[in-house]
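yo

u said u wanted the structure for the complex thing, so here. seqs first:
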Amino acid sequence: MSILELFRKYRFHLLAGCLILAALVLYSSNLRRRQQTSLFERTILQITAPLLHGFDSLVQGTDHLWKRYLWLVETEQENLRLQQENRLLKEALAGQEEVRLSNERLRKLLDFRDETGLPAIPARIIAVDASSWFRTVVIDKGSQHGLAEGQPVVVAEGAVGRIIKCARHQSRVMLVTDASSAVAALVQRSRARAICRGDGDGLVLEFAQQQEDIEIGDQIITSGTGGIFPKGLVLGRATAVNRGTYGLFQTVEVTPLVDFSRLEEVLVLPKEEAP
Amino acid sequence: MKSLLGYLAAGLGFLFVQCAVFPRIFSWHLKPDLLLILVVLTSFRENRLRAGIICYLLGLLQDTFAGESLGLYGLVFLAISLAIKSASGWLNNESPPLLLLMVACGTVLEAAILIFSLGFFAEAGPSWRLIAGSLPFQTLLNLAAAGLLLWFASLLPRRGRSGGFSFESSL
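structre next:
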């Protein structure tokens, strides 16, 4: 059998092998540039931006219309209940002035922007990852608003993720709970250092040395050494500590304080320009 | 060219449903993979080379809205398409339930290639646990979606085999 005949006989297998190899090479080369948004991705994100923005506005508008004007079945009862509540609140209000002032001061203290001292760009989540295996979301701000790949995304409760792809009008954010995400972390009480990895639904603290003092309930924060997140953002609380019998490290399960399934608005922290 | 654009437009439409519509109905993290169903259909309808190219492009579209790196789903969908093409010679392509079987096999193959690629090339941590853990439910969801699409297609007025797009005629 000549080489040509062999080639003819197995041409599908050869073609399949070549295609798979080419796809593998392309994927592998893209892995090296994962912090950049390719022209293809930018174009597709650009094309779909009006659709996603429009759908988000439509859903919000419909929800508003339904709740305000159409779904009025329980409005009368609700109205009576609110009038009663209003009377009680008016009575209570007189004695609450001091509490209000105190509350205001505390709120100022807790205000996230003041606390971090960093500029923040608010954004809305308009879509989520197309597959069930990854944890990414699409936000409605892009390079036009000053966003870029690698910028951290947060909410008042703590770290949310980082921007991995950025088009003109929208960006994709990888959540800290994605299995590919790893954040340099610190145990707030004992200052033990470790790496906080996503595991889909929660977080796992890895590479914390056996002798480090970590207890259930400890708050885990970003250490600021990973180059993405500023120091001190809350990642979650330790809910289980597994020291094991052997090995150098202990593994700690961390429950995020951010409720990722209810995320709607986020803040992007643009990196300060180098002088 | 026209049909290629048609497939890509269908892919974009399915992506929009997956990213923006499903999360408002189901949980954020579990949704049927409509693009996989489209890949299975494309593999039945088109010849090997066309199916491979279309499925690779559909994978790139999915990559724009899933995961971190461009090319991962391209590789996955291309491999699924080639596997279906090589298996279709031994199967009865006239049977509509074959689509369901292929969707189930495609979901398992997708998970296997994802675990392999993420584990060996991207060092993506415990991705395999997440993928393996949700695989049974994902397979059921994909089967349900494919079944619904088949049922919906059966309600549409049938056109000739050479004419419009029909799930059953494609099989």
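Chain A has a mean pLDDT of 83. Chain A touches chain B through 55 residues (CB under 8 Å).
cya
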